[in-house]
Structures are given as C-alpha cells and as structure tokens.
Design goal:
With about 100 residues, the protein is mainly beta. The protein has one domain. Helix content is about 15%, strand content about 40%. The chain has a five-stranded antiparallel beta sheet with strand order 3-2-1-4-5, with helices on one face. The longest helix is centred in the N-terminal third of the chain and has 13 residues. The radius of gyration is 12 Å and the shape is globular. It starts with a helix and ends in an 11-residue tail after the last strand.
Length: about 100
C-alpha cells in the first residue's frame, strides 16, 4: 500500500471516529513532516496543502514513519495519546479507535 492510499484509508476511518485525531509524522526529502487527520480531512502542519480536495496532501518525496491516535478535538497545550506511536499502516488495524 502506498502512503497516499494509507492516508485515504485513514481519512475514511476517521469519519467514523469524530472524537479521534490521527497524527502522522515523517520526512519530505529529510525535512520533518507532520499531517493531522480529523473527521475525514487532512492538513499538514509543516507544509502547504493544495485547495483541490482531489489532490494528495502528501508532497512528493514524503516518507511516513510514525502514527499516533489522539483524543479529539485536539488541544495543542494538552493532547492525550490513545494509541501509538506505531507504524502508520498498523493504525488501520488498531482496535482502540
């Protein structure tokens, strides 16, 4: 499975769990990359994303390395990790959604 497909599946899964936020971390050509997924929508906190909902939110050269499931809605000052850190693909099978 590609990282783009993984993000699409996590977006679908997050629509069913409106009280959860997915945080994916990795790199884009050795630069840190972070993506948040909440209620089916993805947004990068480190790189610009396209306005086109059909375009991938992952810039070319992205490697996703770690995933966490957080309690939503997200409070940056005090976030609660429900599951993780883990490999991004393992989050799809995570039972604690």
């Amino acid at each position: 499975m590609t990282d783009v497909e993984l993000v699409q599946q996590l977006e679908e899964r997050s629509r069913l769990a409106p009280d959860r936020v997915v945080r994916l971390k990795g790199t884009v050509f050795k630069e840190p990359f972070e993506l948040l997924i909440f209620r089916g929508f993805s947004s990068s906190t480190t790189h610009p994303t396209a306005f086109d909902p059909d375009a991938s939110v992952l810039p070319d050269g992205t490697r996703l390395e770690m995933a966490e499931l957080l309690q939503g809605p997200l409070n940056p000052a005090d976030h609660s990790v429900v599951a993780g850190p883990m490999a991004p693909g393992d989050l799809l099978a995570q039972a604690r959604w």
